[in-house]
Amino acid sequence: LKTSQTAKLIIEGLTAVIAGPPNTGKSTLLNYLAGKPKAIVTDIKGTTRDYVTAQCLLPPLCIEFIDTAGLDDEFAANKIEKTAQEKSFAILEKANLVLVVLDNSRTQNALGKKLLKKIADKKIITILNKCDLPAKFDPAKLPEALANTIKISAKAGTGIENLLKKTRQLSGAVNFDLQSPVCFTDRQKNLLQKLTSAKTKKLARQIISELLNARLCV
C-alpha cells in the first residue's frame, strides 16, 4: 500500500500547492520554477487572487506547482479576498505536498489557525524565503508540523536546488524500485486494507483469494 502511493505519484504526477500568508514571495517562487513570468508580482498585499499553475519535470516526477492567494485570518476584509482565500483552501484539499512560504525578513508571519488545521495531515516543506535579506524570523517559533524548513531566495534562485531535492525525497520517488509490487485499482486497495485488519487466518485467506482470483480487465 505504501509503495502504491509513490507509484501513483510517478504515474499521475505530484501536486505541490504553494501556500502561506500574503506577500511572502509565493508568486515569485512559482515564476522561478516555471522559468518565466506566470503570476503577477508586486509589493501590494493580496496581488494574487486566483490560482496559477506551472508543470515542471523533476525525474521521475511530473510536478504541478499551484500558486494560491495569500491566507490570512485577518486579511479577508472584502468579498473578493474572502472568495480567493476559500478557493485556496479548496485547492489545498488535493495537495500531495504543501510548500508553506514565509518571509524570513519579517519578525512575524501570520499563520492562521484555519491554514494549520487544513494542512495538518499533509506532507509539508516550510520555505523561509527572502534569505538574501537580513534574517528576522525565528524558526523556533514555528509549530512542530512546520519544522521541516529550508531557506531560499525565490528572487535570486538561491536554495531552489535544495528545495527540489527535498521535494523528491518527501515524495518517496528517490531510488524507487520499479519492481516493487503495487496496486492500481480501488478494488485492490480496499482488499489490501481489509487484509491489514483481518482478525483470523481464514478471513485473510478469503481476502487473498478474492484479490488473486478476480478476472483481469483488458
Characteristic key phrases:
218 residues; alpha/beta; single chain
Write a short abstract of this structure:
This protein is of the alpha/beta class and 218 residues long. It has helices at 2-12, 26-34, 79-92, 113-118, 160-171, 186-196, 201-213, and strands spanning 14-19, 52-58, 61-67, 97-103, 123-129, 149-151.
How does the major sheet shape up? 6 strands, mixed
The portion of residues forming beta strands comes to 15-25%
* Strand ordering within the main sheet: 2-3-1-4-5-6
* Backbone structural class: alpha/beta
Helix segment tally = 7
Chain oligomer state: single chain
Secondary-structure topology with pairs:
Layout: H1 2-12, E1 14-19, H2 26-34, E2 52-58, E3 61-67, H3 79-92, E4 97-103, H4 113-118, E5 123-129, E6 149-151, H5 160-171, H6 186-196, H7 201-213
Parallel strand pairs: 1-3, 1-4, 4-5, 5-6
Antiparallel strand pairs: 2-3
Helix pairs in contact: 6-7
Description:
The protein is α/β, with parallel strands linked by helices. 35% of the residues lie in helices and 17% in strands. The chain has seven helices and six strands. Strands 2-3-1-4-5-6 form a six-stranded mixed beta sheet, sandwiched between helices. The two termini are 23 Å apart.
